[in-house]
Amino acid sequence: MSILHVESLSKTFGHGELAVRALRDVSFSVEPGELMALLGPSGSGKSTLLLCISLILEPTAGRIVMNERTVYDNAWMGVDVRRFRRENIGFIFQGHNLIPFLNARDNIAVAMEINGAPGRSARERASELLDYLELGRRADALPANLSGGEQQRVAIGRALANSPPLILADEPTASLDTGRGTKVMELLKRIARERQTAVIAVTHDVRMIEGFDVVWHLEDGQMVEA
């Protein structure tokens, strides 16, 4: 059973002569625990695809099925979008998007509290994730007092907080040095294998996708298997 099935997904920006087709009939499936990498130049549609899968950006056409439930079908939304994202998807953005007045621990814990976890257990789990990301000593630091790499690692911990069945990672190691980036990718691989969490990662660094199960190239909005 696929965690995610995408069928003939398209996204067009603008209308008429100014229309730009960012995605063109993209189709693929992702299995539980599968690691999928998306490669391609800037402007090829990689980030747009992740935003459409998570329904942050509404597709123009196509179908999205998550855990055998149709969540989008040619402009029809089959779910409460916010609840769908909260319960099913962990999103790692290029920018950290942390809450500026919460410390590192609470930025992770709040994702679990919104999903119904008691505050104490949420903070304990957040502390564990910070330790995995080698940020335990920075748990009480506000985002403004963290380096760019530290901010991104906190954002990665937040994405992992609710143990979602699918993680979408848009350049998750872009602000990290090679050593830290490799450790982050190894953590994502371990989560995928141990918890059967599917991971779709966009990256420009082919060194970061060693051990991934499937590698796709996006070219002019179309998927080409590597």
UniProtKB/TrEMBL annotation:
Q: Which Gene Ontology cellular-component terms appear in the entry?
A: plasma membrane
Is Transport tagged as a keyword?
yes
Top-level taxon of the source organism? Bacteria
Instruction: Write down the Pfam families for this protein, in alphabetical order.
Output: ABC_tran
Q: Which PROSITE patterns match?
A: ABC_TRANSPORTER_1, ABC_TRANSPORTER_2
Instruction: Recall the GO molecular function terms of this protein's record.
Output: ATP binding; ATP hydrolysis activity; transmembrane transporter activity
The record's keywords, sorted A to Z, are: ATP-binding, Nucleotide-binding, Transport
Q: Which PANTHER family does the UniProt record give?
A: ABC TRANSPORTER ABCH.1, IMPORT ATP-BINDING PROTEIN
This one is known as ABC transporter
Source organism (scientific name): Candidatus Muproteobacteria bacterium RBG_16_65_31
